[in-house]
Give the backbone structure.
Amino acid sequence: MRLIFLGLAGAGKGTQALTLSQRLGVAFVSSGDMFRHHLSQGTDLGLLAKSYMDKGELVPDEVTIRMVLDRIGQEDCLKGFILDGFPRTINQAQALDKALGDREVQGVLYIKVSEPELVRRLSSRISCRACGTPYQKELLPQGATRCPRCGGELYQRADDQPEVVRRRLQVQIPEVQGLADYYARQRKLVEINGEQPVERVGEALVKAILR
Ligand code: AMP
């Protein structure tokens, strides 16, 4: 099973992709997590990625494509994988198609959430200073100050202020739409309503891939 998750920031795709990968027993491959891991290890790739990540810009295709293709070529990805955060550009999507050849992606799950709802969600988001994982404030225990994953300090990112969130979304909307159109032409796109409770979104995803 080889799947791609698509969605704007705040759509909940990271959480859903991780849960589904555990359920299906396939590898979870998040390009954002990979860059953050390189960053925490202080590798050359991490340092290079940092300059783009800090500005909220995309890391150049060449570097990103090489990193992700290497990862999905590893043993644990042979029985399948779920991609989160990759591809982000048409160039990346084409490189992925070319690399996979006959082992092509079977489905692209697009979690759709309206813009006002995304602004609401992202403005109430807090992130871990150490590992970067974002959380919905209302889903954490009240008054939580530490990351449930790694114990790092939780804080509100400067770019999660409502005005900045709106600007980020304006950049992302045409990018995600372009990829949705690309996969719709390949008849691989499935749209999922992301404005339902988390468990319902999960059920809709399972239903979609069993079709
Ligand atoms: P994310 O956790 O998916 O929001 O990714 C965090 C940051 O990592 C992004 O803002 C980009 O700087 C970088 N990044 C993650 N995935 C990609 C990608 N597919 N192409 C380029 N940059 C990426």
